[in-house]
């Protein structure tokens, strides 16, 4: 029969073991629950002008050319074609919540042109405090665009960085399409 050895602080071997097990279970629960807790939204909620500017582009488009947010979401990354294809888009409203992103685009008269909602099952998430939208590339089953939306500065400007994500032999790869800035209409 084994003896219970007393700890200098008055805990028996069984008491110390129980404390260790309790601590391990508690840490285990935190480890399991941590990925389930969503990061706080990067606060991109707001009303923005639909016409923004190209900050950086990899397809030769000049920086600071005007581009439409509506066009970007429609996978039209050329400023010239953007102006021709989306002339009536005037502003857009984003509602960035913990588990979804709501977008509505309006014309100059305030008429809604397009409304969309993305949740976790439709390609929306928060990563590193940024809102991330993933949209399937038209005509491709293994490529998608990843739109990273984040506050650009204290003035409320919205920075949208777009990547083309595609399958490679070494796993997914991402190529920068461009970065675009949109100003708030407050």
Order of helices and strands: HEEEHHEEEEEEEE
The fraction of residues in strands falls at 35-45%
Task: Report on the biggest sheet.
Answer: 7 strands, antiparallel
Distance between the termini: 78 Å
- Biggest sheet: strands side by side, in what order? 3-2-11-10-9-8-7
Number of helices: 3
CATH architecture of the largest domain: Beta Barrel
Helix content: 10-25%
Helical/strand content category:
alpha+beta
Q: Using only CA atoms, what is the Rg?
A: 24 Å
Number of strands: 11
- Do you know the CATH topology of the largest domain? Lipocalin
CATH class of the largest domain: Mainly Beta
Low-pLDDT runs: 1-11, 16-41
Mean pLDDT level: 79
Overall domain count: 2
The 3D shape can be described as globular
Signal peptide: 1-39
Keywords: Signal
Write the SSE topology:
Layout: H1 13-33, E1 46-49, E2 51-57, E3 66-68, H2 69-73, H3 79-85, E4 91-96, E5 100-106, E6 112-119, E7 124-127, E8 130-136, E9 143-151, E10 158-168, E11 171-182
Antiparallel strand pairs: 1-4, 2-3, 2-11, 4-5, 5-6, 7-8, 8-9, 9-10, 10-11
Keywords: Signal
């Amino acid at each position: 029969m084994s003896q219970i050895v007393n700890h200098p602080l008055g805990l028996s071997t069984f008491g110390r073991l129980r404390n260790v097990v309790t601590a391990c279970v508690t840490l285990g629960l935190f480890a399991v629950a941590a990925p389930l807790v969503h990061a706080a939204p990067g606060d991109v909620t707001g009303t923005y002008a639909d016409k923004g500017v190209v900050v950086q582009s990899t397809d030769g488009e000049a920086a600071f050319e005007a581009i439409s947010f509506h066009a970007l979401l429609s996978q039209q990354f050329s400023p010239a074609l953007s102006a021709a294809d989306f002339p009536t888009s005037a502003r857009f409203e984003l509602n960035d919540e913990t588990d979804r992103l709501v977008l509505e685009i309006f014309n100059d008269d305030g008429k809604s042109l397009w409304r969309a909602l993305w949740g976790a099952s439709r390609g929306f998430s928060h990563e590193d405090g940024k809102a991330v939208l993933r949209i399937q590339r038209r005509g491709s089953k293994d490529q998608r665009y990843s739109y990273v939306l984040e506050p650009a500065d204290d003035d409320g400007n919205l920075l949208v960085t777009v990547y083309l994500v595609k399958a490679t032999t070494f796993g997914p790869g991402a190529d920068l399409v461009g970065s675009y800035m949109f100003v708030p209409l407050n």
